Amino acid sequence: MNFENFTKKLRTALLTLIVFSLFVFSQTPNAFACDCTLASIEGALSSSDAVFTGKVSKIEYLDNPLQKSPEPRTIVTFNVSQWWKGSNEKQAVLHTVHNYFTCNGFWFKENEEYLVYASKQDDGTLGTSFCKRTTILARANEDLTKLGKGTLPTEAVQTSEPKSANSFSIEIVAGIVALAVMGVVYKIMKSKKFPKVK
Questions:
Q1: What does the alpha-carbon distance between residue 21 and residue 16 come to, in Å, rounded to a whole number?
Q2: pLDDT by residue (tens digit) across 6-27?
Q3: Is there a contact between 76 and 59 (Cβ–Cβ < 8 Å)?
Q4: How far apart are CA 101 and CA 109, in angstroms?
């Protein structure tokens, strides 16, 4: 094989590869970037059920975090620093998805601070999306200026503490003692002979 034939074959192969690549990308759904109109600050505030700033303290993945489709579901916990709308608790929890390509959810990272616009979902949990203006706190200067001063969280997170094993043991013993006392009283009452009423 002479050099000229080798060059011709190489050129043909490269051209084929380019045409194939263009075909593949043209057939791929438009999921490489979120395409939406960002809500105005006023619109995002009025349409949200909760607006707050806070640092992500925990991210729990409900799906494989590396999967791209569907995007992995996440439960994100925040330590709240300010509230503008919604609760006044020191923590907030979002149920969302880790946004890779679409407009759904948001790509939160642990120990990062965010301004969050959240809305109630069908199951009653709070969720958010890129188009709602949720963003890293360092990029939220315009929003913070218009929102003004928020309120500091004052309430601790309401949690229902499970009963300890000791409390269950005490309740069981008390129940047994009560049954025993009732049994003794019943036997005493039964053994007594009461005069018949004429």
A1: 9
A2: 566 666 765 665 544 443 333 3
A3: yes
A4: 16
Q: Are 119 and 125 in contact (CB under 8 A)?
A: no
Contact 146, 44 (CB under 8 A): no
| Residue 85 contacts residue 17 (beta carbons within 8 Å) | no
Q: What is the mean pLDDT of the chain?
A: 78
HSE toward the beta carbon, residue 46, CA cutoff 13 A = 5
CA distance 137 to 115: 5
CA gap 29, 81 in Å, rounded: 39
Q: Alpha helix locations (H) across 28-105? A: 41-47
Contacts of 175 by beta carbon, 8 Å cutoff, 6+ apart:
none
How far apart are alpha carbons 60 and 155 in whole angstroms?
Answer: 23
Confidence of residue 119 (pLDDT cuts 50, 70, 90): very high
Say if pTM beats, i.e. exceeds, 0.85: no
The pLDDT score that the predictor gives to residue 100 is 77
CA 68/CA 70 separation, integer angstroms: 6
Three-state DSSP class for 180?
helix
pLDDT for residue 67: 82
